[in-house]
Amino acid sequence: IALQVALEVGKLLNLEKDIKVVFTRDKDVFIDLWKRGDVANQAKADLFVSIHCDSHTSNAYGAGTFVLGIRGNKKNLEIAKRENAVILLEDNYQQRYKGFDPNSAESMIGLSLLQEENLDKSLNIASLIQTNFTKKLKRLDRKVKQDNFQVLRETIMPSVLIELGFLTNKQEGRYLNSNKGQKAFASTIAEAIKKYINQLKINTIAVMDDVAEENQQTSLVYKVQIASGKNKIATKAYNFRGLKNVERAAVGSFYKYYYGSSSDLVAAENSLRKAKKKGYKTAFMVAFKNGKKISLKEARNLQ
Q1: CB–CB of 53/1 below 8 Å?
Q2: For the whole model, what pTM was predicted?
């Protein structure tokens, strides 16, 4: 059932000219959990989606989505380090990667920041998928949750694990085993992925409020993302634990809140530390070039 849904999702996504689908399997064979993540890493995928069916001794039912929990971060970081270390085997890696040393303290900070950025993106795609399940398919909402799943630990890109429903529930099991149910799930998952990709394209800030003019004119700017959500909050210090000059950006139907806008990396790192001291433990750094969001690696190369 999971395979049929995944194949249908891939079929729908392959109709898009700017999406390339890579399957961990395209026939009914078992693939080791670690190999599934390895396939995604080797493909340098931008998104990993793992589709499953659930079971329980009770009559439980409903659909849920998962992203990597805090417990899995350490293992995930070690895999990211290992994947990055491969560049040492390449010819002329010093020139190709501008002297980037995957074993340096700086690169570890960069990977940690990338990990936090991946979590933010994972939560975004998980939310889109879960909303489609509950609003369009009318499935019981088992929420977006964080957990320490093996397949999520093994990937070094934004990742989400989907539980379509419970095969042990007779009614839900019949629906999942039907062609109609599988196509319905596939359609909503594919739609959410396409929406996620479109959001990345405009991420690039659709609307930026309360931004100083000089910051808009700076070609490379670092910011600290301290919060995101659907609520539009006034950027007053009292709303953000005393942090001043908070910026609000509209991205799709969400608002993101940034602190410590600066073209200086050291100043941005100080802002990140300050935000975490204020209680924003999941705050992380992002970079923008001419108003368009870029990866921290790109920003480092530009500098």
Answers
A1: yes
A2: 0.61
